[in-house]
Design brief:
Blueprint: H1 3-10, H2 15-20, H3 24-30, H4 38-44, H5 53-68, E1 71-79, H6 106-117, E2 123-127, H7 137-147, E3 153-157, H8 163-172, E4 176-178, H9 186-192, H10 201-205, H11 207-213, E5 218-222, H12 230-247, E6 252-256, H13 275-288, E7 293-296, H14 302-308, E8 315-317, H15 348-357, E9 361-363
Parallel strand pairs: 1-2, 1-8, 1-9, 2-3, 3-4, 4-5, 5-6, 6-7, 7-8
Length: about 375
């Protein structure tokens, strides 16, 4: 069985008809049950739930403190390559885009690692563009070996791998994986992933399960908000997270809700996702899956991230750059070789101080291999 079997049950589900039958009493009842069903979760994503956002926020905050305490784990991304074989219409690394392509040497990887580790961070997310030719598994593996000298936790966000390849990298020291489906709607998926290995919908959908079957410690999944109707996408994301939690109960499952940001190619979102909608989806996901990790990246503004802090977030990035070697290289702002533009530009130290001022414990290290 694969999550694809679950997806097929809901792919033609008439969500607008369902929303048309949601009543206020249903929302109120769902807020008072200990375990929320799939359809109660979906009702939280309807416009009928908007008058209940304050009650949802109260419950979401209570659940977050119960399961995670008043803590926020911090991490930062580290790009080592921007070569790509895909044509994803929304991505600055699209192989058709005329940007300066670069891959870090191992000495440059070491330089980046040394610089980032001086901030105190012990969790690093290693990213490449999606090119097996330029960033083969062997290259990724050597980068991981370097990063292990500086960080207690190394996660990957690279092209999707086979089961054996995930095992090889886990054995090399990788303990976390981020892999976004981007959009669950198969038709839209084929429209925005026009060529390259990433256009294989099912191979990407099953990637989290392949990694978890080899005992990946943490897996982070997500949708790219703006590619399709957010209510159905977030519903399927929640079901996917639930499926993984139930099947791999000894691993940590988390989700991200990245919103489309300006990038090379000037792709325009198919739908606009407003701030209040992101609030609503975070609350709904937290109430549906209380143990779910929820990551909020620097795609969002500093003010918005601050407003969301107490509502269910458990993990945030800091000191981010989406430029290859961007932590130590001199970046030419005119060339814009970034994957996308970030919004919250605060350093790790600034984020630490902010969290402490708000009464939160910034967690720089919460795991290490023994």
């Amino acid at each position: 069985m694969s999550f694809y079997d679950v997806y097929k049950q809901y792919k033609d589900f008439d969500i607008q008809n369902f929303f048309g039958n949601v009543e206020s009493q249903m929302i109120q009842k769902a807020l008072n049950v200990p375990n929320v069903s799939e359809y109660q979760f979906l009702s939280f994503l309807s416009s009928r739930a908007e008058p209940f956002l304050e009650q949802m926020a109260t419950r979401s905050s209570q659940l977050t403190r119960q399961y995670f305490g008043k803590t926020i784990q911090l991490y930062t991304p580290m790009y080592v390559s921007n070569y790509c074989e895909n044509e994803c219409v929304y991505c600055g690394f699209n192989r058709k885009n005329k940007i300066q392509r670069k891959k870090l040497s191992f000495d440059e990887v070491k330089k980046e690692a040394e610089f980032i580790s001086q901030t105190g961070l012990k969790h690093i997310l290693l990213l490449t563009g999606s090119s097996r030719a330029q960033s083969p598994v062997g290259y990724v593996k050597e980068c991981v070996k370097i990063l292990q000298k500086y960080f207690s936790s190394v996660s990957l966000e690279v092209y999707t791998l086979t089961t054996d390849e995930y095992k090889e990298l886990i054995d090399a020291g990788v303990d976390g994986l981020t892999v976004y489906q981007e959009v669950y709607d198969e038709v839209v998926y084929s429209q925005v992933h026009q060529a390259g290995p990433k256009s294989d919908y099912l191979f990407r959908l099953d990637a989290p399960e392949r990694a978890l079957s080899q005992r990946m410690r943490t897996v982070n999944i997500g949708v790219l908000l703006g590619l399709s109707q957010w209510q159905k996408e977030v519903f399927l994301l929640g079901l996917h997270a639930q499926y993984l939690q139930d099947k791999f109960f000894d691993s940590e499952i988390s989700i991200s809700l990245p919103r489309l940001r300006p990038a090379k190619g000037m792709f325009q979102p198919a739908c606009v996702v407003e701030d209040k909608s992101i609030v609503q989806m975070i609350l709904a996901l937290r109430i549906f899956l209380p143990r779910l990790g929820i990551t909020l990246s620097t795609r969002e503004s500093a003010q918005f991230r601050e407003n969301l802090l107490s509502l269910g977030i458990t993990r945030m990035s800091a000191g981010s750059t989406t430029e290859v070697g961007g932590h130590t290289a001199i970046v030419d702002e005119n060339k814009k070789n970034v994957q996308f533009e970030i919004s919250d530009t605060r350093s790790v130290l600034q984020m630490i101080k902010f969290l402490e001022q708000k009464g939160y414990q910034p967690v720089l290290k919460d795991w290490m291999a023994i």
